[in-house]
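JOB MANIFEST
job_type = single_chain_structure
chain_count = 1
residues = 219
[input]
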Amino acid sequence: MADRRDDAAHPVYLQSGVTDAADQAERKFIERLAQRDERAFNELVELYEARVFRLLLRMLGRRDEAEDMAQEVFVQIFKAVGTFRGDSKLSTWIYRVSVNLCKNRMKYLSRRHTAGEDELEPVAERAPLDEAKGVTFGDVAQPDRLVEGYQMERVLQTCISELEPDFREVLILRDVEDLSYEELSEITGLPDGTVKSRLHRARAMLKASVERKMGEKIR
Protein backbone atom coordinates (compact mmCIF):
# COMPACT_ATOMS: atom_id res chain seq x y z
CA MET A 1 0.00 0.00 0.00
CA ALA A 2 2.83 2.39 0.87
CA ASP A 3 4.36 1.91 -2.55
CA ARG A 4 1.09 2.79 -4.27
CA ARG A 5 0.71 5.97 -2.21
CA ASP A 6 4.27 6.94 -3.11
CA ASP A 7 3.52 6.44 -6.81
CA ALA A 8 0.36 8.52 -6.55
CA ALA A 9 2.23 11.28 -4.77
CA HIS A 10 4.97 11.27 -7.41
CA PRO A 11 3.31 11.01 -10.84
CA VAL A 12 6.70 11.60 -12.47
CA TYR A 13 7.59 8.01 -11.53
CA LEU A 14 4.51 6.75 -13.28
CA GLN A 15 5.33 8.85 -16.33
CA SER A 16 8.87 7.49 -16.31
CA GLY A 17 7.52 3.96 -16.20
CA VAL A 18 5.25 4.61 -19.18
CA THR A 19 8.16 6.12 -21.13
CA ASP A 20 10.43 3.17 -20.32
CA ALA A 21 7.76 0.73 -21.47
CA ALA A 22 7.29 2.65 -24.73
CA ASP A 23 11.06 2.76 -25.33
CA GLN A 24 11.32 -0.98 -24.71
CA ALA A 25 8.46 -1.69 -27.10
CA GLU A 26 10.11 0.45 -29.78
CA ARG A 27 13.45 -1.32 -29.30
CA LYS A 28 11.76 -4.69 -29.79
CA PHE A 29 9.97 -3.37 -32.87
CA ILE A 30 13.28 -2.14 -34.32
CA GLU A 31 14.84 -5.55 -33.65
CA ARG A 32 12.03 -7.18 -35.62
CA LEU A 33 12.64 -4.76 -38.49
CA ALA A 34 16.39 -5.44 -38.41
CA GLN A 35 15.62 -9.17 -38.65
CA ARG A 36 13.64 -8.43 -41.85
CA ASP A 37 10.32 -9.35 -40.24
CA GLU A 38 7.82 -8.75 -43.04
CA ARG A 39 4.92 -8.28 -40.62
CA ALA A 40 6.89 -5.63 -38.71
CA PHE A 41 7.64 -3.80 -41.95
CA ASN A 42 3.95 -3.82 -42.88
CA GLU A 43 3.17 -2.39 -39.44
CA LEU A 44 5.80 0.32 -40.00
CA VAL A 45 4.26 1.31 -43.31
CA GLU A 46 0.79 1.40 -41.77
CA LEU A 47 2.03 3.59 -38.90
CA TYR A 48 4.04 6.11 -40.93
CA GLU A 49 2.74 6.03 -44.50
CA ALA A 50 0.35 8.97 -44.13
CA ARG A 51 2.85 11.13 -42.24
CA VAL A 52 5.65 10.47 -44.72
CA PHE A 53 3.42 11.14 -47.70
CA ARG A 54 2.12 14.37 -46.19
CA LEU A 55 5.65 15.59 -45.53
CA LEU A 56 6.80 14.74 -49.05
CA LEU A 57 3.75 16.37 -50.62
CA ARG A 58 4.41 19.58 -48.71
CA MET A 59 8.09 19.51 -49.63
CA LEU A 60 7.67 18.60 -53.30
CA GLY A 61 4.28 20.17 -54.04
CA ARG A 62 3.38 17.41 -56.50
CA ARG A 63 1.31 14.35 -55.72
CA ASP A 64 2.91 12.09 -58.33
CA GLU A 65 6.41 12.88 -57.07
CA ALA A 66 5.32 12.44 -53.44
CA GLU A 67 3.80 9.03 -54.15
CA ASP A 68 6.93 7.79 -55.93
CA MET A 69 9.21 9.21 -53.25
CA ALA A 70 7.15 7.67 -50.42
CA GLN A 71 7.75 4.21 -51.89
CA GLU A 72 11.47 4.95 -52.15
CA VAL A 73 11.57 6.15 -48.52
CA PHE A 74 10.20 2.86 -47.18
CA VAL A 75 12.50 0.82 -49.42
CA GLN A 76 15.48 2.73 -48.05
CA ILE A 77 14.24 2.40 -44.47
CA PHE A 78 13.91 -1.36 -44.86
CA LYS A 79 17.43 -1.56 -46.31
CA ALA A 80 19.03 0.69 -43.70
CA VAL A 81 17.13 -0.16 -40.51
CA GLY A 82 19.96 -2.49 -39.45
CA THR A 83 22.24 0.57 -39.22
CA PHE A 84 19.83 2.51 -37.00
CA ARG A 85 21.68 3.00 -33.69
CA GLY A 86 18.69 4.06 -31.64
CA ASP A 87 20.19 7.43 -30.69
CA SER A 88 16.90 9.09 -31.61
CA LYS A 89 13.27 8.07 -31.81
CA LEU A 90 12.37 5.82 -34.73
CA SER A 91 9.97 8.47 -36.02
CA THR A 92 12.75 11.07 -36.01
CA TRP A 93 15.01 8.77 -38.00
CA ILE A 94 12.22 8.12 -40.51
CA TYR A 95 11.72 11.86 -40.95
CA ARG A 96 15.49 12.26 -41.46
CA VAL A 97 15.55 9.60 -44.19
CA SER A 98 12.48 11.16 -45.81
CA VAL A 99 13.87 14.69 -45.78
CA ASN A 100 17.29 13.67 -47.12
CA LEU A 101 15.83 11.67 -49.99
CA CYS A 102 13.36 14.45 -50.70
CA LYS A 103 16.08 17.13 -50.84
CA ASN A 104 18.11 14.99 -53.23
CA ARG A 105 15.04 14.62 -55.43
CA MET A 106 14.41 18.36 -55.33
CA LYS A 107 17.98 19.01 -56.52
CA TYR A 108 17.46 16.58 -59.38
CA LEU A 109 14.18 18.19 -60.38
CA SER A 110 15.67 21.68 -60.23
CA ARG A 111 18.47 20.60 -62.58
CA ARG A 112 15.87 19.34 -65.01
CA HIS A 113 13.96 22.61 -64.61
CA THR A 114 10.82 20.61 -64.08
CA ALA A 115 7.83 22.91 -63.77
CA GLY A 116 4.43 21.75 -62.66
CA GLU A 117 1.42 23.18 -60.92
CA ASP A 118 1.46 22.54 -57.19
CA GLU A 119 -1.05 19.98 -56.07
CA LEU A 120 -2.87 19.88 -52.77
CA GLU A 121 -4.63 17.02 -51.12
CA PRO A 122 -8.40 17.44 -51.01
CA VAL A 123 -9.50 19.44 -47.99
CA ALA A 124 -11.13 16.40 -46.39
CA GLU A 125 -7.93 14.33 -46.63
CA ARG A 126 -5.10 16.65 -45.72
CA ALA A 127 -3.76 17.86 -42.43
CA PRO A 128 -4.98 21.50 -42.29
CA LEU A 129 -2.28 24.11 -42.63
CA ASP A 130 -4.44 26.57 -40.69
CA GLU A 131 -3.10 24.83 -37.58
CA ALA A 132 0.38 26.13 -38.32
CA LYS A 133 1.83 28.30 -35.57
CA GLY A 134 4.04 30.60 -37.62
CA VAL A 135 1.25 32.37 -39.52
CA THR A 136 -2.37 32.75 -38.45
CA PHE A 137 -5.03 31.73 -40.96
CA GLY A 138 -8.77 31.99 -40.90
CA ASP A 139 -11.03 29.25 -39.65
CA VAL A 140 -12.43 27.37 -42.64
CA ALA A 141 -14.84 25.20 -40.68
CA GLN A 142 -17.83 27.43 -41.59
CA PRO A 143 -19.38 26.46 -44.97
CA ASP A 144 -19.53 30.06 -46.21
CA ARG A 145 -15.77 30.37 -45.70
CA LEU A 146 -14.78 27.03 -47.20
CA VAL A 147 -13.91 28.42 -50.66
CA GLU A 148 -12.01 31.33 -49.15
CA GLY A 149 -10.10 28.95 -46.89
CA TYR A 150 -9.27 26.58 -49.73
CA GLN A 151 -7.96 29.47 -51.84
CA MET A 152 -5.75 30.50 -48.93
CA GLU A 153 -4.45 26.94 -48.68
CA ARG A 154 -3.48 26.97 -52.36
CA VAL A 155 -1.74 30.32 -52.02
CA LEU A 156 0.01 29.08 -48.91
CA GLN A 157 1.22 25.88 -50.57
CA THR A 158 2.49 27.85 -53.55
CA CYS A 159 4.40 30.20 -51.27
CA ILE A 160 5.88 27.28 -49.31
CA SER A 161 7.04 25.64 -52.54
CA GLU A 162 8.82 28.86 -53.51
CA LEU A 163 10.95 28.87 -50.36
CA GLU A 164 14.50 27.59 -50.62
CA PRO A 165 14.63 23.89 -49.61
CA ASP A 166 16.53 24.54 -46.37
CA PHE A 167 13.91 27.05 -45.21
CA ARG A 168 11.02 24.96 -46.49
CA GLU A 169 12.33 21.97 -44.56
CA VAL A 170 12.37 23.56 -41.09
CA LEU A 171 9.06 25.36 -41.66
CA ILE A 172 7.19 22.19 -42.60
CA LEU A 173 8.78 20.07 -39.88
CA ARG A 174 8.03 22.59 -37.15
CA ASP A 175 4.82 24.38 -38.17
CA VAL A 176 3.03 21.63 -40.11
CA GLU A 177 4.39 18.40 -38.61
CA ASP A 178 4.68 20.03 -35.14
CA LEU A 179 8.05 18.49 -34.30
CA SER A 180 10.16 19.78 -31.43
CA TYR A 181 13.30 21.88 -31.88
CA GLU A 182 15.30 18.93 -30.58
CA GLU A 183 13.83 16.70 -33.29
CA LEU A 184 14.52 19.35 -35.93
CA SER A 185 18.17 19.48 -34.86
CA GLU A 186 18.42 15.68 -35.04
CA ILE A 187 16.80 15.56 -38.49
CA THR A 188 18.71 18.46 -40.05
CA GLY A 189 22.00 17.99 -38.21
CA LEU A 190 21.97 21.70 -37.33
CA PRO A 191 22.55 23.31 -33.92
CA ASP A 192 19.44 24.38 -32.04
CA GLY A 193 20.22 28.07 -32.49
CA THR A 194 20.63 27.68 -36.26
CA VAL A 195 17.33 25.84 -36.49
CA LYS A 196 15.49 28.61 -34.63
CA SER A 197 17.13 31.34 -36.72
CA ARG A 198 16.32 29.58 -39.97
CA LEU A 199 12.74 28.95 -38.88
CA HIS A 200 12.30 32.63 -37.95
CA ARG A 201 13.50 33.69 -41.40
CA ALA A 202 11.32 31.06 -43.11
CA ARG A 203 8.21 32.29 -41.30
CA ALA A 204 8.98 35.90 -42.19
CA MET A 205 9.56 35.06 -45.86
CA LEU A 206 6.39 32.96 -46.02
CA LYS A 207 4.28 35.68 -44.41
CA ALA A 208 5.64 38.33 -46.80
CA SER A 209 5.06 36.09 -49.81
CA VAL A 210 1.47 35.27 -48.80
CA GLU A 211 0.72 38.96 -48.23
CA ARG A 212 2.06 39.86 -51.70
CA LYS A 213 -0.07 37.25 -53.38
CA MET A 214 -3.20 38.02 -51.36
CA GLY A 215 -2.73 41.78 -51.58
CA GLU A 216 -3.45 42.25 -47.89
CA LYS A 217 -1.85 41.94 -44.50
CA ILE A 218 -2.40 38.78 -42.47
CA ARG A 219 -2.33 38.41 -38.72
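[summary]
The chain has two domains: 21-119, 121-219.
Residues 78 and 194 are 31 Å apart (CA to CA).
exit_status = 0
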